[in-house]
Structures are given as structure tokens and as C-alpha cells.
């Protein structure tokens, strides 16, 4: 699959702060590519450079197979963009916003179909100012789709949405991927990246700290399972001695990673029995991207 | 062009849907014109303004009667004078003092008799005019009464053969630089039109553009394949349609409700109306480029607007201002817009050579547009 986006050694600083520090990646056609990282990791700056809203200090950008010095209307005509902090004229109606933006693109999708797709057909005559935060986000998604783009750049597409609306957006993105669209999204929700992405780049402090498919990234930890339970703090040193390098305390929760769950869990339960300790709220789970980020940076995604 | 039309249509919708914009930029100029015409237009026709004068005629002779009749005739001939007949001298003094009458003519009991005796003598007969000190209306009424008395004084001398009926010189009063009689509505209408265009450009443009910058609307447009030039072309076209509606409504109101006779359909008037549209639009864009918040934009627009309005000669004559302020007036766009449009409509003449207006106004447009384009950045950050 040919890359729709290719970025090499991209750099952008704001004064002494290196927001994007020499990153390189490529997004294959017809895939969902996620930039995952905490707030301030450099995700938004990266996508804003690709949208033409920021000018990089250095690095090369290729879009749709062509090297571009500066992203302009010719590239934007083939993209749909959902900004993290975009907005629409408050006194326009939902349908009018979509009609207006459809006039900017050389080809466009039918407004009625878009309204149905994002679940806003009942609100088509409503003024933008009367929409809820979630409805505004769905309108922004419809606007990103109105030009029938080859590439969708979505900056935190589900931030501010309730779980049901978030699921609906995921379904829409899967549907678009099925239609052969290429999607580049940023998120700080690891479950979103995990559920949607074909390829994930984990960013921190302007750098890509890891990349691969979600499965590859998780497998790279070498851990089969995580066991979590509530534990009084005084017992922590004993457990650290029993499972060296595998224990961490997260508030009142103790987390132990096991490469072999059967033997690890049986050792833990024996220790608890011998010491008379109750492992309250015990939970066994698979490793996820949050664990990958934590293992790589020592911090959680939402810190 | 489809993009520009679509955007212009959207901006017209926004203007017409925002109540505040509708009130301040469409209804307020209409209210202002109505108010000014109702107040000052009536004064021009003699309504609403006038003096109450009193006459106390204690004389029972011919001359007292003639003088009394002259005041009555004056009061009948114009609504400016309302006449009150008073019997007692003490009463009329009190009425003047209390401000119930502006001035009073007091004809003494022996006026006719002493006038006969006084003809050609050193000791003339006397009448008295009473008025209040320090009050312009009272002084004006007293002057008019005084002029009336002087007229009769000359008439008596002519009839007695003591004064030639042919005056030694003639006074001619000539009106220059304007139509013979300019009605108030014709004078104020161009002023209200310019004020409306100016305020719309200076306040509505920054409020729309700065809000678009502030909340991310501008960025949303720019990530669509819309160039900054396309955005501003659409905005300008939308603003032009709105301002044309504003000018049309002001003119229709002036014509149909207050009988304005001037027509804007003259090439030079259309040129000044176009300049009156583009100057505030470009200054509005300049303010949008500097202001970071809508609140800041309003403050900046006020800082620009107030001195320009006060030194623009729209509301009061500025000929008596100090020299340095007159220098500022010469570069004030409102001076040239107001004077230029009035001159183009044939209701006044500009104090400046005819080429200065368009040149100064074009310079305002050019410089504002250059600085605005350099600073605005169109949402792209380096």
C-alpha cells in the first residue's frame, strides 16, 4: 500500500520548547493510523503542520505521493480535517454549515446523508449555538467528511463525547476505513487507539517513543497478564522481594505483571494465605497500550 | 467564485440573525435619522422652537396703537412669536423675571404725546424692552422687538420729512456654496449614512473576524480548501450587501418619511458611498489584526472611532478648532467622507480641493489593508 502521508525528521519548536523533535512516520493508504500520547506530547502540533496551520522548522512532508514545502488549498481539497478546537459560526444552522463547507470542495457528499451518518438529521435546522458539545463535535466530523476526502485528519475526535457517542464515532471511522479512506487520528484514549488503529505511534515530549500495531506494542512488553488488587502499603516491600521488578503501586492499588500467569498467580495466592492478607478487588487483565506507555516513560497517559 | 458567494450569503445571514448587529447597524441609524429630523426638522419649520413676548400698551394714542399692532402682525406672520397681552407694568416685569415670557415691550402712557413733542428735539420719547440677562432666547427675542421698534422709528422720521426714504446704501445678503435652501433632512441624511457605514465597518468587522480568530472559526475555514483571499472576498461581499441594505433603508426613510429630495444616484455620490464602505471596512480589518479578543477589538474600535467622529464635522462645525486639530481634520477620513458626499449631492462645498478627498480616503484603504494583511496571519502560525 502506498503511503498517503510520509513525514521525515519533522521539527517544530516554540522558543526553548521542542514541541516536535525529529519525528518520522508514514501512513499507509486505507489504514487507521493513531498518534497516541498524553497532552503536550506534540500530537496536535504534528497534525497542524500536516493541515498547513503551522510551518515546521525543518523536515520533509509528502502528501498523496508528492513532496510539499507548505500544505495549501490543493492538498486540503483532498483532506478532511477535524480540529481539536475548531468552531462554526454560531448563528448558522447545521444544514447551512454543511452546505457552506461543501461549496469549498471540488466534490462533496450529500448533506442529508452526512446528517444521517453523524446522527444530526433532527438538528439540521438548529442554530450551531444551540447545539451541545457532543453535537458540535459530530457536526465537526460531518464537516471533515463533506468534501469526500481521501485522507481524514482527526485531532482528538471523541474528546467530550459520551461513551455511546464515542462508540458511534468509532463505528463511523471503521465504516470509512471500509470505504478505503485513510485516517490519521490523535488521541490520548488508549482504548480508542487500541480499538481502531492499524498502526500506532506513541509520542512523548515531541518524540516517537514506540510504534507498531497495537498487538505488537503490547507483545513487546513480554508480559502475559496483570494482576491488580488493593493492598495495605506495609506489605509492598515483601511483594517486591517476592516478584522483583514486577510490582508497582498505583495509589491504593498494587499491580503485578506476570509473564507466566499460572505460576505467578499461584505464588501470590500462597503468599497471601501464609500472611493472612485479603487481596481485595482482585482483577486479572491483559496488558494494554497504557502499560506500554507506562513501561516506556514511567508515566501514565493521562497524567 | 462559488466559494465567495456561498460565504457572502452566510455572512449576510449572520448579520440578519444577530439581534445586536441588526439593532446597532440597521435600526439605530434609522432611529437616529428619525429622531434628528423630528427634533431639528420641526425647529426649521418654526415648530417646537419660539418665543413668547408680551406687550403692555399704556398709551391711548395713535403711535402706541401702531407699535402694538406691528408686534401683533409679527406674531401672526410667524409661529416663532407668541404674543401675550398684559395690562399692568408690574405684572410684565414679574413675567420676564420668572421666565414666563422671553421679552416684553413696554409702551408708556405718554408715548404718543411725547413723540409729537420730541420730533426733531434732543429729548426723544421712550419705549422699553424688558429681557433677562445671560439667556440667549431672551436676548434674541429682545433684539427682534428692538428691530421692530427701530423700523417704526425710521418710518416716523421719514413721514416727518426728517429722513430720506431712499437709503444711502443698500445691503445685500448672498448665500454661497450651497443650494439656496437646504432642508435639514437633506443636510443630515448623508451624515447619518456615513456614520452608519463607518460604525458598521469599525465595529461589526472586528467583532466578526476577531471572534472567528478567537474561537477557531477562522482555522476551521482555513483547513478547508479556502484561501485567506477567498475568506476576505466572501466577507467583504457579505458586508457590502448588508451595508447596501443599510444605506437603502436610511435613504428610503429620509425620502418617504421626511421628504428628503437628494438622490444618491450621481456618479460622484456613488464613488463617495463606495469609499465610505471600503475605508471603515479596511480600518475594521486593521483593528481585527491587532485585537486578540472581541473585548479588545471593541475597545480599539472605540479608541479609533471617538476622535474621528468628533473631529469629522458630522455633528458640529469644526472651523473654530485650534490649528493642530484642524491639521488632524485634514487627514480624518470622516471629514472627507462627510464633506465629499454632501458636495457630491450639491448641499455644501468641501473646504479642501476636490482631489484631496479621494486621495486621502484611498490612502486610508491602502495603508490599512497592507498593515492588516501583514499582521492578521490568517490563522497560520510560524
Structure keywords:
heterodimer, A: 303 residues, alpha/beta, Rossmann fold, 2 domains, six-stranded mixed sheet, 11 helices, 14 strands, B: 382 residues, mainly alpha, abc type-2 transporter like fold, four-stranded mixed sheet, 14 helices, 4 strands, 5% strand, elongated
**Greatest interface and its participating residue counts:** A-B, 31 and 27 residues
| Radius of gyration of chain B, taken over Cα atoms and rounded to an integer in Å | 30 Å
Low-confidence stretches of chain B: none
The strand line-up of the biggest sheet of chain A is: 6-7-8-3-9-10
Termini gap of chain B: 29 Å
Largest sheet: spatial strand order of chain B: 2-1-3-4
Mean pLDDT of chain B: 85
What about the largest sheet of chain A?
6 strands, mixed
Major pleated sheet of chain B: 4 strands, mixed
Strand composition percent of chain A: 25-35%
The outline of chain B comes out as elongated
Give a written overview of the molecule.
The complex is a heterodimer of chains A (303) and B (382). Chain A is an alpha/beta fold. Chain A folds into two domains: 3-217, Rossmann fold (3-Layer(aba) Sandwich); 223-286. Chain A contains eleven helices and 14 strands. In chain A, strands 6-7-8-3-9-10 form a six-stranded mixed sheet, sandwiched between helices. A four-stranded antiparallel sheet of chain A has the order 2-1-4-5, with helices on one face. A four-stranded antiparallel sheet of chain A has the order 12-13-11-14. In chain A, a hairpin with a 2-residue loop joins strand 1 and strand 2 (17-28). The longest helix of chain A has 16 residues, at 163-178. Chain B is mainly α. Chain B folds into two domains: 2-42 and 182-379; 50-159, abc type-2 transporter like fold, CATH 3.40.1710.10. Chain B contains 14 helices and four strands. A four-stranded mixed sheet of chain B has the order 2-1-3-4, with helices on both faces. The two termini of chain B are 29 Å apart. The model of chain B has no long low-confidence stretch (mean pLDDT 85).
Amino acid at each position: 500500500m502506498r503511503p498517503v502521508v510520509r513525514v521525515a525528521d519533522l521539527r517544530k519548536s516554540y522558543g526553548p520548547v521542542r514541541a516536535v523533535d525529529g519525528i518520522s512516520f508514514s501512513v499507509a493508504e486505507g489504514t487507521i493510523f493513531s498518534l497516541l500520547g498524553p497532552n503536550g506530547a506534540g500530537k496536535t502540533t504534528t497534525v497542524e503542520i500536516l493541515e498547513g496551520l503551522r510551518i515546521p522548522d525543518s523536515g520533509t512532508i509528502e502528501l498523496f505521493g508528492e513532496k510539499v514545502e507548505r500544505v495549501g488549498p490543493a492538498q486540503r481539497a483532498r483532506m478532511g480535517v477535524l480540529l481539536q478546537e475548531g468552531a462554526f459560526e454560531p448563528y448558522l444552522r447545521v444544514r447551512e454549515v454543511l452546505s457552506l463547507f461543501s461549496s469549498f470542495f471540488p466534490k462533496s457528499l450529500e448533506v442529508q446523508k452526512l446528517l444521517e451518518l453523524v446522527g444530526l438529521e433532527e438538528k439540521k435546522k438548529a442554530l450551531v449555538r444551540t447545539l451541545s458539545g457532543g453535537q458540535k463535535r459530530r457536526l465537526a466530523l460531518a464537516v471533515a467528511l463533506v468534501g469526500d476526502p481521501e485522507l481524514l485528519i482527526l485531532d482528538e475526535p471523541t474528546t467530550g463525547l459520551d461513551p455511546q457517542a464515542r462508540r458511534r464515532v468509532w463505528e463511523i471511522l471503521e465504516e470509512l476505513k471500509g470505504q478505503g479512506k485513510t485516517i490519521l487520528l490523535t488521541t490520548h484514549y488508549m482504548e480508542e487507539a487500541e480499538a481502531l488503529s492499524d498502526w500506532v505511534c506513541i509520542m512523548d515530549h515531541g518524540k516517537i517513543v514506540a510504534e507498531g500495531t497495537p498487538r505488537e506494542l503490547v507483545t513487546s512488553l513480554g508480559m502475559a497478564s496483570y494482576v491488580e488488587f488493593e493492598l495495605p502499603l506495609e506489605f509492598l516491600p515483601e511483594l517486591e522481594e517476592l516478584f522483583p521488578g514486577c510490582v508497582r503501586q498505583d495509589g491504593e492499588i498494587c499491580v503485578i505483571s506476570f509473564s507466566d500467569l499460572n505460576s505467578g498467580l499461584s505464588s501470590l495466592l500462597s503468599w497471601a494465605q501464609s500472611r493472612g492478607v485479603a487481596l481485595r478487588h482482585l482483577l486479572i487483565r491483559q496488558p494494554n497500550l497504557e502499560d506500554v506507555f507506562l513501561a516506556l516513560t514511567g508515566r501514565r497517559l493521562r497524567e | 467564485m462559488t466559494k465567495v458567494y456561498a460565504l457572502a450569503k452566510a455572512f449576510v445571514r449572520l448579520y440578519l440573525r444577530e439581534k445586536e448587529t441588526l439593532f446597532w447597524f440597521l435600526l439605530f441609524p434609522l432611529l437616529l435619522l428619525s429622531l434628528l429630523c423630528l427634533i431639528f426638522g420641526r425647529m426649521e419649520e418654526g415648530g417646537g422652537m419660539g418665543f413668547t413676548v408680551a406687550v403692555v400698551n399704556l398709551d391711548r394714542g395713535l403711535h402706541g396703537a401702531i407699535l402694538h399692532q406691528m408686534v401683533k402682525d409679527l406674531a401672526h406672520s410667524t409661529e416663532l412669536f407668541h404674543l401675550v397681552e398684559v395690562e399692568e407694568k408690574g405684572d410684565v416685569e414679574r413675567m420676564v423675571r420668572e421666565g414666563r415670557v422671553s421679552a416684553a415691550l413696554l409702551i408708556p402712557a405718554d408715548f404718543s404725546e411725547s413723540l409729537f413733542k420730541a420730533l426733531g428735539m434732543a429729548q426723544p420719547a421712550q419705549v422699553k424692552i424688558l429681557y433677562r440677562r445671560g439667556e440667549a432666547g431672551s436676548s434674541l427675542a429682545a433684539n427682534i422687538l428692538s428691530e421692530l421698534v427701530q423700523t417704526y422709528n425710521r418710518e416716523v422720521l421719514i413721514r416727518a420729512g426728517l429722513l430720506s426714504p431712499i437709503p444711502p446704501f443698500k445691503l445685500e445678503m448672498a448665500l454661497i456654496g450651497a443650494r439656496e435652501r437646504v432642508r435639514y433632512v437633506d443636510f443630515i441624511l448623508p451624515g447619518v449614512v456615513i456614520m452608519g457605514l463607518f460604525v458598521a465597518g469599525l465595529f461589526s468587522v472586528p467583532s466578526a473576524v476577531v471572534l472567528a480568530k478567537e474561537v477557531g472559526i477562522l482555522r476551521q475555514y482555513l483547513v478547508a480548501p479556502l484561501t485567506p483571499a477567498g475568506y476576505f472576498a466572501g466577507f467583504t461581499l457579505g458586508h457590502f450587501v448588508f451595508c447596501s441594505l443599510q444605506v437603502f433603508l436610511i435613504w428610503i426613510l429620509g425620502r418617504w418619511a421626511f421628504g428628503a429630495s437628494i438622490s444618491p444616484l450621481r456618479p460622484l455620490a456613488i464613488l463617495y458611498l463606495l469609499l465610505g464602505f471600503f475605508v471603515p471596512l479596511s480600518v475594521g480589518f486593521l483593528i481585527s489584526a491587532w485585537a486578540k479578543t472581541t473585548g479588545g477589538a471593541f475597545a480599539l474600535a472605540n479608541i479609533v472611532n471617538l476622535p474621528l467622529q468628533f473631529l469629522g464635522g458630522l455633528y458640529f462645525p469644526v472651523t473654530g478648532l485650534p490649528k493642530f486639530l484642524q491639521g488632524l481634520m485634514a487627514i480624518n477620513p470622516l471629514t472627507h467622507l462627510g464633506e465629499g458626499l454632501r458636495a457630491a449631492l450639491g448641499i455644501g462645498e468641501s473646504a479642501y480641493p476636490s482631489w484631496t478627498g479621494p486621495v486621502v480616503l484611498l490612502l486610508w484603504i491602502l495603508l490599512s489593508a497592507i498593515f492588516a494583511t501583514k499582521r492578521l496571519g490568517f490563522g497560520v502560525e510560524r
